[in-house]
């Protein structure tokens, strides 16, 4: 079990990078918003392994000068992503519910920090850049063939994530061929912002009834509860670990609800300069911007 309730990674006023336990006065305080306002402080966490019970939340307090993503690229072996896992999103995509979780992979270099600029490469700029707000699982210890009874013991915590996507390269037969293609279309550098913190499994409790919202330039685009998930956290862990080791530090993005640009009658794709926020109850607000290369 991890020793922290919430984990952040940040730069202090000395420009050094720290792991920390953010200091909040209320359980629903939003770490992302507090950091934006320059009001966030944290207790320093020491130790070589933030997932180990040998890590220590110290009494050394520092002001958060710049909030980063809670995990560095080097700490994340792989990012697993689940497609078609919210019923209403499946309907807007014109698909049928899958019999089992549908998996695709993002490389670790997709990871982006809180407040980062997500750079859209030239081949993915033309009326296709989309957002997907997602509840993201952080694995806290290695596990394989995980049982239902012990599944949640492998979860260090949860964060907000955005599965940024290039829809032409994903779905247009002229680009993807006859079968939708996920890994290339969603695998560009920084196409997986995650944050603003990791909230421990013990602190979250039931992750199956959290409000999730995605906001673009101040406009609400997605709003739903994680109770619309077809495959819940336990089922995902059990299924994905069959014959496969889920490594400590790896992420599982659990799918996106309805409201993506692709599902609109007149899609409102992400444009150069747009700001995206993903807000999840009990976790806080992830924020990033879009810049065309």
Explain what you see.
The protein is mainly beta and about 290 residues long. The chain has 6 helices and 19 strands. The chain has helices at about 30-35, 85-90, 165-170, 175, 200-205, 235-240; strands at about 5-10, 15-20, 40-45, 55-65, 65, 80-85, 100-105, 110, 115-120, 130, 135-140, 155-160, 165, 190-200, 210-215, 220-225, 250-255, 275-280, 285-290. The strands form 3 sheets. Strands 1, 2, 3, 4, 5, 6, 7, 8, 11, 12, 14 and 17 form a 12-stranded mixed β-sheet that branches.
Instruction: Say what oligomer this is.
Output: single chain
Strand content: 35-45%
| Count of distinct strands | 19
Taking all Cα atoms into account, the compactness measure Rg is: 18 Å
Question: Pairing-aware structural class of the strands and helices?
Answer: mainly beta
End-to-end distance, in Å?
42 Å
Biggest sheet architecture:
12 strands, mixed
The low-pLDDT segments are none
Question: How many H/I helical runs?
Answer: 6
- Write the H/E string, N to C: EEHEEEEHEEEEEEEHHEHEEHEEE
